[in-house]
Amino acid sequence: MVAPSAFAQSALAPTTSLRPAARAEDILKTYQPPLSALIEAAGLDGKISVQVADVKTGLVLESHNPLRALPPASVAKALTACYALDVLGPGYHFETRVLATAHVVNGRIDGDLILAGGGDPTLDTDAIAAITRRLREEAGITEVTGRFLVWGGALPALNGIDSEQPYQVGYNPGISGLNLNFNRVHFEWQRAGEGYNVTMDARSATYRPAVRAARMRVEGRNHPIYTYKDGGEFDDWTVARGALGRNGSRWLPVRKPARYAAEVFQVLARSNGIVLKTPELIDRLPTGATSIVTHESAPLRIILRDMLRFSTNITAECVGMTATVAHVGAVSSLKSSADAMNAWAKDRLGMSSVALEDHSGLGDDSRVSARDMVVALIAARNSMGLKPLLKQHPIRDEDRKIVEDHPVSVHAKTGALNFVSGLGGFIDLPDGTELAFAYFSADMPRRESLTREQREDPPGGQAYAVASRMLQQRLLARWGILYNG
What we know:
By secondary structure, the chain is an alpha+beta fold. It has helices at residues 2-11, 24-30, 35-42, 76-87, 125-137, 257-271, 300-310, 313-328, 334-348, 370-383, 444-448, 461-482; strands at 47-54, 60-64, 69-70, 95-100, 104-105, 108-109, 113-116, 143-144, 148-151, 184-192, 195-201, 214-219, 226-230, 235-240, 247-253, 279-282, 290-296, 368-369, 391-392, 409-417, 420-428, 434-442. The strands form 6 sheets. A 6-stranded antiparallel sheet has the order 2-1-22-21-20-19, with helices on both faces. A 5-stranded mixed sheet has the order 16-9-7-4-17, covered by helices on one side. Strands 5-6-8 form a 3-stranded mixed sheet, with no helix packed on it.
């Protein structure tokens, strides 16, 4: 009796499963750990804020403490780019001008020559060389009998972006309306017997003019490695002999950018046969001065693309303050300019609690939440053309190797300070879905415990940065699997 029953059940069984076979991507989705588990497994001390949303609908798909405001680091530059694009326009050009208080007569100016900056953060030694060459070849100038005046008043003169940074880091230079070589000077040293030969120059791919606006002395000590003080008309540096080794070089920040640019201009003008007197800084342009030569920067869109790619702080600050001048009519300080951008972001991007203290993200008192950043990214994506300017962010495997031809595409801005990490941008999934996301993490107690000298390369800083980047990669992989339809 048992055998026929068993046979009957077998004979009537369906030839295929009643449940559809699971697709590989569906299986992958079921294996994804919760967001909280990924964050906990990363083992990052401090605070984390994360959110991801659908760009088309604005629907929030996943979040972790999305209202927690943390330092955005250089992710703030994405907001600065939007501010500049909206206020100045993608085709805006910075102008550096040479003016004169008298006409050119037989190659001679019986008056003053003025070098006037327009806030261009990209002006370099090659551009200065081209300007001085045009003075001779196009304007026909061979002699200037009056003064050589220098004006950098298009933007406020700043000694640096963030006062808490180490003195020697090139990413924290002075800023003015007249800048040169990202306001960095090239310091090089070579052992010579018992001492060292040191040079300070404003080098480019073509020129290496020596400068006196920044000066260096080697002193017999081991620590601190560098010291800086205001030398009046020059930057006064010292370096520890015990830290130099045989030879080497590095870029140091310039704190007196207008004087630095003026000295290089004077040297290169002389190479074109134009002898200028000692530069004199002025607070305002003389009335009646006429323009002789005008140098234009690349269009703003190109400047912003490079800023987002290379994360140049001086570019962000000059662009941001220039936008504030155009937006509200004047700028008195970096903080007041950041306040103007904060107000603009609330009005134009729909942010609710953004509180930046600068335009580059270098200052760690700036605060942005993941929610606010995602809201801003979606608004900027739809109205300001931010996404094409963002650098493509690679997808990496668990061994931190780039995965070539990955089906998920990410365009984002990174951000990093000591024990602070950020990433914000867009994810394109294979099915056409587009996501906007923001990630911020910060261990502020650990960061605030650092001395000024430790901040260039703090103990544990690299390990924190690696762990944070690995968490970012796992989040990107998770979202690429979960939200691909």
